[in-house]
Structures are given as C-alpha cells and as structure tokens.
Amino acid sequence: MARIYGDVAGSAGFRAYLDYTITETATTYRVDVKGGIQAYTKAISHSGSSSAGTINGYVYVGSTPYQKTVTDYSIAKGAVLQVDDDYVTYTKGTSAVAHELQAVMAIVSDGTSTVNFAVTVPALASYAVTFNANGGTGAPSAQTKYYGKTLTLSKTKPTRTGYQFVKWNTKADGSGTSYNSSGSYTANAAVTLYAIWEWVYVPHKISNLSAVRCDSAGTASDTGAYAKVTFNWTKAALESGQVNPSAIKVGYKLSTASTYTYASVSDLTSGTASIIIGGNLTEDNTYDVIAVVSASGHADVTKETYISSSYFCMDVSPDGKAVAFGRSAPENKEGVFFGLPPHIDVNTTATTGIDANITAALDALGWTSTVISNKNLDVKLLLQKLLNIRIVEVTSSTFSIDANGYLHLVVPLPSSGTAIAVVGWYITGTTNTWGNIYEYTLTSAGGDFRIKNLNQTDAMSCQLTVRYLVIG
User: Which uninterrupted H or E stretch holds 386?
Assistant: First the structure.
C-alpha cells in the first residue's frame, strides 16, 4: 500500500491523505483506495451537535462519490482518521490509459484539503507477428497480437514465380502449425510465420492456329483436297525448368464425324508447327481441325479450328459449260449445279425486316405460293425461276388517239414467255426528242403507252421500243 497527501488546510492544520493498493492481472488493473484526514500540525478533535468542526469527506474513483460525515473524533498530532474507501477495476486494452483518482476532506467552518492521484492502466501484453516470404516476395507487414485477443492475419499473400501460395506455417519446412491467409492467430506469443509454397505446372500454350485448303505442295487453293495447318506453341514450365513437348499432332475429321485422323509433327523444339494434312478433302464438306501438344505426365493441350466448304456465290467452269451457285462449277460437266442449302426459313407474316422484304419481292413476282411452303423457301426452285427471267425488246409504230385527245403508242408483248414488268423504253424517228412516256398500262394484249408532249405529226414518224422483263 502506498500513501499520498494533499495540501495543509484550516486553522486546525489538517491535510487529506489517500492510500492505494494496485492488483494487476494479465487483463485487469484494480485500484483499492482509502481516504481520510491527518492531524498534521497539532492534535484535533470534535464532539457534540455543533456542525462546526464536523468532518465531511469522500474518495473519487470514477463513479459518483458518496460523502461521509464524522461528528465525534479525536486525532493525535501526526495520526490519521480514515473517512471513506472505494475501489475500481479497469480492463486493459491495446493501449495504456490514464485515470484520475481523488480524496476530498473538509472540516466544516475551517477548510478543505484535496489529494489527487493519477493512475495509468497499462496496455495488454503484446506480441510481434512477423511474416517471411520464404523464397518469394511481397510478405505482409508485421502485425501485433495482444494478450487474450484474437488476431486476424493479413490477407496479403506473397508471390513467387512458378509457385502458388498455400498457407503460413510456424516452420519454414511446413512442419509446424499452419495458418491460412486472413486466418485467426490466438496464441499469446511472438511468432514468425513462413510462406509455404506449392509448385505450379504451367502447360504448353497453342496460338495462331490456322488451317487453309491447299494442293499437295501446300499452295493455297479454294478447291484443294489438302489443308496446310500452322500454329505456334510455348514450352511448359516444370519445377525443374521449361521443357519441350513430348509429342505434337494434328487431326482432322468431317464436322459430322466423331473420330479424327491424325498426323504427327516432327519438330518439337522450334515453337512453331507447319504440316499438310488430308488428300481426301472434298469441296462440299466442312472439316474440324485439332492441334494437340502433349507433355509427359500432364493433360494434353488442344486448340481447334475448321476448314469450311468451298463456297462460291456463283462460279462458271473453265470450259463455260457448267454454272454453279453456292459451290464451284465442276469441270467436264454441263448444266446448272447448286451448293446452297435446300431450304431457308422465311416468315411470310413478318411486317418488317428481311423476311418481310423477301415476301414482298416474291409477291410482286407472283411466286410466293410457288417457292414457299410452310415458311420454307425452296432455294433451288427460286434460282431456276430466276434463271428464266430475261429482258426482251419490242418495237412498234402503231398509234391511236383517245377520246381526250391523248396520243397513245401500243407495243405488243414478246412472242414467248410472260411479260411481268416494263423496265425501260426509248423513242426513235422523231425530231421532238423531249417527248416521253406519261403513263402506260400493261395488259394481256400488250403495252398501251400514253405519250406526253408528242404531237400527231411526230407520232406518225416515230417508233417506241419497250424493254419487257419476261419469265419463260
């Protein structure tokens, strides 16, 4: 127990005192205090009912104090009289905290003496937690663990080329206690945590894969029965270093087939591959192509592409005897050939978009019901009908004058096929070159053309040539 005194007060020459005792544990700090009066310069006493000379006093430890009163007392010089006592228990935190304690003693009608005591509650015991990257870089900064408190370890993970961070461990070889990144550390002890690593296999990588139809010498050809396949590859990264593939091969198959036909690439060191495959590729088919790079003890690395069919919007054979749509024209054959899909879905009820445009065009030609069935457009039939469309010119000099005095030239229809539209005209045999068609009517008998700005004299010497769009 320790004691401290306040100032000397009053004619009685007394002073306040405070005794304190500290009891400390790992997590708490208790202070017991006692306070009273010392007869400092002379003996003092009081008795009876008079308030003068009565002692009023209290000790303050942080909560509201309760004043104590002593009416009868006799204190020898140098002796003390205890008036009040109290205690307070503090819980330690992560930093030290100061508190003020006090004892206030008064003799009524004489004076007051005060004694103050500052007590500092120490922080919890702390322990350094440090991190060692153990061959890597970027270890977290050190952390502080406090007694009885749970420390959440840093979420920062170090890095190491070719390795993956696994966990922390109290031993560099991983034989101690393990902790996860962002895990909980509860031990009340300083520690160094070592990064534990796991080697990472980095596989080969394939890039820039290309497959192009060609001839047997590798020269690009749209109708080639072979394909030239080229690509780049990188070495795999093993724990012992970078290594070349154990094998490289290229396969191909019909897009509808399930099994590849493979050919091996002999160069396993350069990082590039080039090989000619096939010999049996047909123009009309699409083929899947796969590149495979293997590493012993690990999964194959693959990359896929395809070889499309030989597509032509229209092609004519070298001898001019064959015409093809959607494919190449065959040699030594005569006729029209098609490589387009047999049908295309067309929504005939659409009001906007490409389907509406197709339907409107077919309606204008009167073909909709012929080439579309159940919303399927027969592509081959449509092309056959389109191939029968031609432009035919017909010339006439027969004219007439209608009841309104308008001049008309009548041009017969072509002798064969069905005229479905007028696509142009021109007038010859007149000096009045500014005469032109005002309107016309196309009937089964022919075209009746009303001429604007052409008088009867000019009409007798002119001819009208009409270009009809004809089917059949």
Answer: helix 379-387
CA pair distance 169, 179, nearest whole angstrom:
6
Domain spans, the chain: 2-121, 126-199, 206-307, 318-385, 389-471
The architecture of the domain spanning 389-471 is: Beta Barrel (2.40)
State which CATH number among 2.60.60.30, 2.60.40.4270, 3.20.20.70, 3.30.710.10 fits the domain covering 126-199. 2.60.40.4270
DSSP letters for 395-449: EE--EEE-TTS-EEEEEPPPSSSEEEEEEEEEEES-S-TT-EEEEEEEETTEEEE
- Architecture of the domain spanning 206-307: Sandwich (2.60)
- 287: tokens are 């083929």
Distance, CA of 432 to CA of 454 (rounded, Å): 7
Q: Under a CB-based contact definition with an 8 Å cutoff, are residues 393 and 465 in contact?
A: yes
Tokens standing for residue 330? 């065959």
- How do the pLDDT tens digits run along the chain, 472 residues long? 899 999 999 999 999 999 999 999 999 999 999 999 999 999 999 998 889 999 999 999 988 889 999 999 999 999 999 999 999 999 999 999 999 999 999 999 999 999 999 999 999 999 999 999 999 999 999 999 999 999 999 999 999 988 899 999 999 999 999 999 999 999 999 999 999 999 888 899 999 999 999 999 999 988 889 999 999 999 988 766 788 999 999 999 998 999 999 999 999 999 999 999 999 998 778 899 999 999 888 899 999 999 987 756 566 666 556 666 666 777 677 666 666 555 667 787 888 877 787 778 777 777 777 777 777 777 666 766 666 666 678 887 777 777 776 667 777 877 777 777 776 667 776 554 444 565 667 766 677 777 665 566 666 667 777 777 777 6
What tokens appear for 236 in the block? 């795999």
| Phi, psi dihedrals of residue 43, rounded to the nearest 5° | -70, 145
Q: Which residue has the tokens 């479905």?
A: 420
Which has the closest alpha carbon to 308: 206, 222, 218?
222
State whether residue 363 is helix, strand or coil: helix
d(CA 303, CA 388): 47
Fold of 2-121: Immunoglobulin-like (2.60.40)
206-307 against 389-471: fold identical:
no
